[in-house]
Structures
1.
Amino acid sequence: MLRFNPLTKKKLQRFRSIKRGYWSFLILVFLYLISLAGELLVNKRALVVSYGGKFFFPTYGQQMSGKDFGLGYDYEVNYRELKRKFTQENRDDWVLMPPVPYGPYEMDYRLEESNGFSPPSFERRHYCGTDKTERDVLARLLYGFRIAMTFAMGYLVLTYLIAIAVGSFMGYLGGKSDMLGLRFVEIWANVPFLYMVIILVSVMPGGWGIGWQVSSLLIIMVLFSWTGMTYYIRASVYKEKARDYISAAKVIGAGPFRIVFKHLLPNVVSTLVTFAPFTIAAAISSITALDFLGYGLPPPTPSWGELLKQGVNNLRTAPWIVTSTVTALVLTLTLVTFVGEAIREAFDPKKFSIYE
Amino acid sequence: MNIAKHLIPLLLFLTNFFFSGCDNPKLKPPRTVSPSKEEKEAMPDKPIDREFARELAREFAREFAIEFARQMKGSGSFSMSEIGGSEEKNATVIPSGMVNERGEPHPLLADCSEDVLEFYQTNADCFSIASVNDIPAHLNWQEGTEEKEFSSPEARKGGTWEVFMRDFPRTLRTIGPDANGAFRSYLLDYNVISLVHSHPNSDGYYPGLATSWAVGEDGRTVYFKLDPEARYSDGEKVKVSDFFFFFYFMRSKHIQAPWYNDFYGKDKFQKVTLYDEETLSITFYKAKPDVVERVSIRAKPEHFYGELDGEFLSKYQWNPEPTTGAYVALPENVDKGKSITLVRQPDWWATQKRFFRHRFNPDKIKVSVVRDINKAFEIFLKGGVDMFGLAKTEFWYDKLPDDHELVSKGYLSKVTFFNQTPPPSYALRINSQKPPFDDLNIRIGFHHAMNFEMVLERIFRGDFVRMNTVADGYGDRSHPTLKAREFSIEKALDSFAKAGFTKRGGDGILINDSGERLSVELLTGYRHFEDVLVVLKEQAKKAGLELKLKVLEPTASWKAANEKNHQVIFSAFNSFVELFPRFWEPYHSDNAYQESGDSKYQDDGSLKPNLTTKVSTNNFTQTAVRAIDNLINQYREEEDLGRITQMAHKLSKLIHDHAVWVPAWKKPWLRIGHWNWIKFPEDWGPRESRDYEEFQVFWIDPSEKKKILEAMEKGEPVSEKPTIRIYEKYKSR
């Protein structure tokens, strides 16, 4: 178990006492957990199928073919049609669909007139309407949220790893390595982030599947944006290094690794933590921006940027796309910012200062 | 000098490396129009104007490098003059009648500068002056009298026609770097008069600068008689020597247009002969059935250029050449960065000529820059732009629906005009060299797994039709019965099973005995067709095929395809209005592998192992089939139209059987919206219209404009019915 020192415990308590931030945090965690279980809520696969006296749970696991349920095809079952068939034939078999019975990739070209951009409809269970290729906007929003959040967290972890490594290296060693390291960071920081990412993504060779493309996008983004944090880490390490307890540790004979990991980092953590939510917000906005420009996740990955782009191009004819996406984006970013504010306040060494 | 010799090739390679990715590999021949406005508007994500100029620059860079490589191979040394085509090193003077014994030029060439005359003399095998008696006596002179005019006698002159372009042109030259932008069409393609024009409603020709023409006995020399009234916009007469000068110009290295240097090179245009002040002949390398069209060049105003030097590009950057066409771009009408206004010459020489009267009607064409397509559309709805291409489904159905107030009240018309012209070749090109596509069964299965039916029905709402062969839109030369393979899960599965993919994996994708998944990568540079590919991907899953989509920048995707690194690429090339399709570039094995000719094949007709892939060619399918090669070789030599037709059919079928090209769609129409003060002839436009402005047959009715604007102010309708027009006269099949 993690053992927090009393100071950190106090900070956490203070965070809990800031209601707005605390509740935002809970809501955000809740939303993310929901999105992780998205397959149970928004999915084209059924939750439960009762067929021939047996129960099937197709949500996770292998794809079931039409032939498994007595249909004439061997590609994936269309569970909505299966349900309709069972109802029509008045059989004992039944299908339980999730609340939103559509997947994020699936085009619901069922009706004659549905050629894309169908408005929100409770009857068809497209609660946020459909996009250009008749995919459910809500489904794409939810899975897009999951991907964006996961992506943002991966981004956070990776940037911090690099920043901590480089920052504490410079800060702890000081002298020439600090001077050279800092110059390198300054030069690297001046490489324009968005352009570099766009250029690299657009020429990136494919061929290793979508997972590879997503992670390489992540790596490229991290590669050009870790620099910002190093300054803070370096400064904090510098500050802490001069304290007596570090000297004491040195006198006892602790090696540099022990000092950095055991003594310095725990005290630098507060700096890191205050920045974390804003890094998450930045990551979400940049991945959305990249997708909007068309350089982000490979199609047809559900993404907010792609939805926004469709929405903006069809502002008048399909306003529901823009409305739902912007609402979701604003909501998420506001929540993240509230959390960030609260953390910043809770970890503020000057307890009674006012944060604006 | 030595350093320069090494630097130039290096630079060329570098430019090639940088620019070898480009969108359109087919090089544009000079007499075809740049892609229609409709086409441009169908791809709003792409800044066409700029992009096109760049593309051409890239093409030129590539052509340059290829040419360079060829030169290097051939001679082991590199000389700019060889690319320029002037061949200075072979400078031996052949007596040709161009100068007399005293060294004075022939009267027809009296105004030539020394440099130009020297060029003619150096290339005396290409340029000659003969006497009138040398014209064969029994020529069958044509004047196009049997052809019908395609303009309307009701047309009247006047008004300003407001159009938009996406980007301001970087030059008013019509050749050289940056010249191939969208604006060039207004200066050149829609405007300038050639010797003879092919008739857009028939297979015949109508006279332009030449009043009459005749094909010689050899079938490859065409004789022209110039119209004595033909004038440039600066009042100078069009002279026969201007057609000599045309080749001096086009073969000059100073225009920095290697493609044109090559296209008008002496291996194709073998000889130009002047007989008197009105008669000339041009000899083509082969007696092709459409030889008249091929040699029908434009005049180059020698009096304007004099001779060319290294200053050419900068000197003529904003100084347009005098034109034989109706509209002139004068420097004072250029508002840099904003608009260019073209003015119709009041005393244009061809105003009263058959085939030109009742055309080119507006007094002015004002071309303004609007960078964003959606903004341009809003300006159009306000009446600031007179016409707007509505090819895109969302414009036609959603943004300007039939019940839109402007349409229902009769202010605006929505027009569908069925045309007949070779469509841009939208298709999935399968690289038959890359596994698993080296197996014919996989390729056939792939064809059947592509649900273009759904794409056409749902995304294009049934307005586009399926392309069927590799050569659609060439009239009789297109295969009459061949059909594209339909979407069929059973057939796809059967075919995949033959290739060993029999079981489905846990995710529904087929696997073979060694556990390989049936997964291929589909590359494209068309971000705006992402929705199409998404539909294909989702549908292909049903047939157990996984498509991994890879949408890159056009340049990057082009580069990958040029290096033949793709498995499947979705792309389109512009087709030209030509009599018969081209097969050599995309399907001959010489464009697939470096080993030449038949040496690629083993005795049984299969390919030898370890062949070297040839990059930077148009054979994106890496087709190498002995039977196809042989037929293409014959096809290229053939001069008889009947046999060409047969061979084209046979080739289409062979390529279909080889299954490397999944045809996508074509638009059988032009779809535009226009304000109702723009009037069109009864048939709307000629059969081969690829663009609403191509033949300039419309006119502006000022009184109607006043009426409509007044009615709009009051909110009164001007028509009882919505103005929606469909012209089906040229609807095919």
2.
Amino acid sequence: MSNLSVNHLLGIKYITKTDIELILDTATNFKEVINRPIKKVPSLRDLTVANLFFENSTRTRLSFELAQKRLSADVVNFSASSSSVKKGETLIDTVNNILAMKVDMVVMRHSSAGAAEFLSKKVKAKIVNAGDGAHEHPTQALLDAFSMQEKLGNLKGRKIAIIGDILHSRVALSNIFCLQKLGAEVKVCGPKTLIPKYIESLGVTVETDLRKALEWCDVANMLRIQLERQDIKFFPSIREYTMLYGLDKTLLDSLSKKIVIMHPGPINRGVEITSDVADSDQSIILDQVENGVAVRMAVMFLLAGRQ
Amino acid sequence: MKPRVLLENKQLEITLTRLCYQLIEVHNDFSNTVIIGLQPRGIYLAHRIQKLLEGILKKKIDCGDLDTTFYRDDFRKKELKPNKTNIDFIIEDKYVVLVDDVLFTGRTIRAGLDAMLAFGRPSDVELLVLVDRRFSRHVPIQAKYIGLVIDSIETQNVKVDWKELDGKDRVTLIDK
């Protein structure tokens, strides 16, 4: 019998390879459950989960909420734009007030890196990080790994390229940790200004030529340009970025092998990836979304199973 | 105390064959009956029964594997690892024979009854077990078809080994 080595899912950095494999194995079982005529199991019927989203989200929030409902948990939702945060309440006060209403687990997205870890030290509930600033987004990395495994089998020795705005991306960092723990090779690709200075110390390679990166990899994970996090100009224009780092069908078809295309969403069609690539048979973008529910069910089920 | 062997090889085969004929007495040609084995170890018994029945009746019999982990009431008390559910038929209006190797507290069967409902509403459910550890139930559940009834205490364990899994067909009583 096995269980996770942690009480909270704060980031991929803090969990082991065994934890990742356990989550992905359990997710396989949940994927079978969500494809049944009755998609619900009663596992968490005695649990209340609060979704605290201090930052906007569609996919992650819906995915978490669906996962909670399919596990029969009670769910309360909170978004910063319509709350007392606007009136000047601190994070800990907000969360403690919510916990006073007897909540067992908190799923939180916050714009500050480390917010989830900070919270886990201050409050009693189990914390799942749904994205903290440009730090980590662990469930996204897990569902990406799950989707890759589904398509390619074991990831050991596989080559994964993460392409785009690496600097502002929490998806990139979590993906790097997760893929390396599973034994895959990771390369990041993008304009030099959008690649963090010390990224090579994580053991990844850097490539600034998109075609070379694509020729090298088995899977290309295309990231969005996060304009909302860019306080200065990192490249001359969107048009120039697209010319140099946008993936279109002509480029994809000219490669010597068929690679798998992923995107964590939301897609800016025509910027980092064109519509015909996003909708092509090489793209597994919608599989990622489906698998997201199964993976999040697995994470919450396993965390709830810990004493 | 040394482990005590309760059933082995030939004896076990005789018991399984008896269970099959008891099933045929009630379900005739199995035209509206399906077998569902409970994970993790009930599925071996279920598939063994399925094979024997197919040999006797000379026809295909539906048999699925059901995992109860997500439906258990004690998953936070002990660490449980889910197994595969593999049921490729609908059980709506069917006669279902639930199969498990050992009936002890009855909690697995209770979870199994819940889990089964995700695949339809059966018209009738019966329970078949190889070993019934009587007087140890936590819930009011009894089996209809029983291979062997034994009296045992809580500190003992009943282990059923299968040829395909453990290299030998054997039922043993072990002191924990």
